[in-house]
Amino acid sequence: MESTSLPSASAHHLCVLVHGLWGNPQHLDYLATSLRQRYSDDKLHILVAKSNSGNFTYDGIELGGERVTNEIEETLEELARSGREITKLSVIGYSLGGLVARYAIGLLYHKGWFEKLEPINFTTFATPHLGVRSPLLGLHNHIWNVVGARLLSTSGRQLFTIDRFRATNRPLLAILAD
């Protein structure tokens, strides 16, 4: 199955799949195939986000969320132009993709999309909603916290909660928890 299949003409529900750190759309092929086997084309459209593949996952939750939001909006607009109306939205995120999806949902909300779309499901798995920073003492944990946060660029700083989101002076994950 191709990861970014175009939706059918009659389905009204869009399900978006978002992969994690170092990921690519093919990492979600099994999930997309399983959903397709369970729900026919006339019940569910599947969009596997592809804009954050590979090294783009280092760009952080905010930029990744903006990219996924753009993909969702482009898909919705393309479907509307072809006479296909989407009325329901579900989003599934894996690992870092869960955080990216969470951010994207917030952007969709602020842009007014949920006045037109009914949110059905938001599901994440293996997603570090509280970050990955180790609170434990000791040299190994200190190395993990310092090196990990820096090796993974913006995403690492956000996952280890050492970033400061815009003018809030707080980590993005703390803002997302509000």
Key words describing this protein structure:
Rossmann fold; 2 domains; 6 helices; 4 strands; 14% strand; disordered N terminus
Please write out the topology.
Layout: E1 13-18, H1 29-38, E2 45-48, H2 61-81, E3 88-94, H3 96-110, E4 118-125, H4 139-151, H5 153-159, H6 172-177
Parallel strand pairs: 1-2, 1-3, 3-4
Helix pairs in contact: 2-3, 4-5
Would you write up a description of this structure?
This protein is α/β, with parallel strands linked by helices. It has two domains: about 130 residues, 3-Layer(aba) Sandwich (Rossmann fold); about 50 residues, no CATH class. It is about 40% helix and about 15% strand. The chain is built from six helices and four strands. Strands 2-1-3-4 form a four-stranded parallel sheet, with helices on both faces.
CATH superfamily of the largest domain: Alpha/Beta hydrolase fold, catalytic domain
Work out the count of structural domains: 2
CATH architecture of the largest domain: 3-Layer(aba) Sandwich
- Helix % is 40-55%
Q: Write down the overall mean pLDDT.
A: 93
Into which percentage range does the β-strand content fall?
A: 5-15%
Based on secondary structure, the structural category is: alpha/beta
Task: Going across the biggest sheet, name each strand in turn.
Answer: 2-1-3-4
Q: Tell me the major beta sheet.
A: 4 strands, parallel
Low-confidence residue ranges: 1-8
For this structure, the CATH topology of the largest domain is Rossmann fold
- Overall, the morphology is elongated
- Number of helical runs? 6
* Estimated radius of gyration: 17 Å
- One letter per element, helices H and strands E, the order comes to EHEHEHEHHH
